[in-house]
UniProtKB/TrEMBL annotation:
It comes from the Bacteria. The keyword Membrane does not apply. Keywords: DNA-binding, Transcription, Transcription regulation. It comes from Spirosoma pollinicola. Residues 197-295 form the HTH araC/xylS-type domain. This is AraC family transcriptional regulator. InterPro entries: AraC-bd, Homeodomain-like_sf, HTH-like, HTH_AraC, HTH_AraC-typ_CS, Tscrpt_reg_AraC-type_HTH. PROSITE patterns: HTH_ARAC_FAMILY_1 (PS00041), HTH_ARAC_FAMILY_2 (PS01124).
Length: 304
């Protein structure tokens, strides 16, 4: 699918309102973007009213639905702590509610979005399963949602007969799909996954340091026993093992991309000794660090 973005200014909205009646959902922006890895976000194509600096975040005057189709990143708002989001996640942005989000620098992401306002939009967003406290919704890879986004973009791109009314119906259909996903989801499961992704984000931020997982659990108002079980159910490994795999991944990257010695890499990745680093590295990759650097094979650690 081609990349596309469209933003309506006040003059355009005024002309549209004069030409066709509002159905209670006025679209303000629509887009599909594939943001590549290792690029700053947002890109320069965002207009001033939508662009933001990560250190400051942003507050909008409209509702937005954002769907992450691929990749991963982080989302944070005044009601939700920093949380890792992955492909298949939607988030709802509310007028006057501070937020910020960005893709991972290593992966980038593919995003679809639509911004809207209007009296019927207000009514829809007051439904029980929609609130700033429940902004993150696990949608999964639903072809139906992507198909509606695609049709919506085509409707705006070609501006055929009654395109404004058709676009309104398609936005309502999108919200209906998200509403259904929110209703069908298990609240306790969503809460569990949110905590796990918050902990993942925290681990990724301090991966080179020793981590007190009991303290990390306490910061999220759960016990370590609960956190370990939930983390393993969601991620397939315990948090300590996830941390160890992450450190080995970083070491592999350093072996392939830097001229640092093996002992320097062991120190920078937070291992207590060169011997321990070499032992764990061999256990994970079947090679010593020096052998790996010489051969540089492609090794997948996700199932290790």
């Amino acid at each position: 699918m081609d990349l596309y973005r469209k933003y309506f200014n006040e003059q355009q909205l005024h002309l549209l309102s004069a030409q066709t009646p509002s159905w209670g959902v006025d679209m303000l922006t629509i887009g599909h973007n594939l943001h590549p890895a290792k690029k700053a976000y947002p890109d320069h194509n965002h207009p001033n009213q939508y662009c933001f600096d990560w250190s400051e975040g942003r507050t909008l005057n409209e509702f937005q639905l954002v769907y992450i189709a691929n990749g991963q990143g982080v989302f944070e708002s005044q009601t939700i702590p920093p949380t890792l989001v992955e492909g298949g996640t939607a988030f709802l942005l509310y007028p006057g509610v501070w937020h910020r989000f960005k893709p991972s620098y290593e992966t980038g992401w593919e995003e679809f979005w639509v911004g809207f306002q209007g009296h019927y939009a207000e009514y829809l967003m007051r439904q029980e399963c929609f609130s700033p406290e429940k902004s993150l919704i696990s949608i999964g890879f639903r072809s139906e949602l992507l198909n509606v986004f695609t049709r919506l973009i085509d409707t705006l791109k070609y501006e055929g007969t009654a395109y404004r009314q058709i676009a309104t119906c398609q936005v309502i259909q999108l919200l209906g799909l998200v509403y259904t996903s929110a209703l069908m989801s298990d609240t306790s499961r969503n809460r569990r996954e949110q905590i796990v992704h918050q902990v993942r984000y925290r681990i990724q931020g301090i991966w080179a340091q020793p981590i007190d997982f009991e303290k990390l659990a306490e910061e999220n108002n759960v016990s370590y026993v609960w956190l370990r079980k939930a983390f393993k159910e969601v991620m397939g490994v315990a948090p300590g093992q996830y941390h160890l795999n992450l450190k080995i991944d970083k070491a592999i990257q350093m072996l392939g991309e830097t001229s640092l010695s093996v002992s320097e890499i062991a120190y920078q990745t937070g291992f207590e000794s060169l011997f321990y680093f070499s032992r764990i590295f061999r256990k994970k990759t079947a090679l010593s660090p020096s052998e790996y650097r010489a051969k540089r094979p492609v090794i997948n650690l996700e199932k290790t």
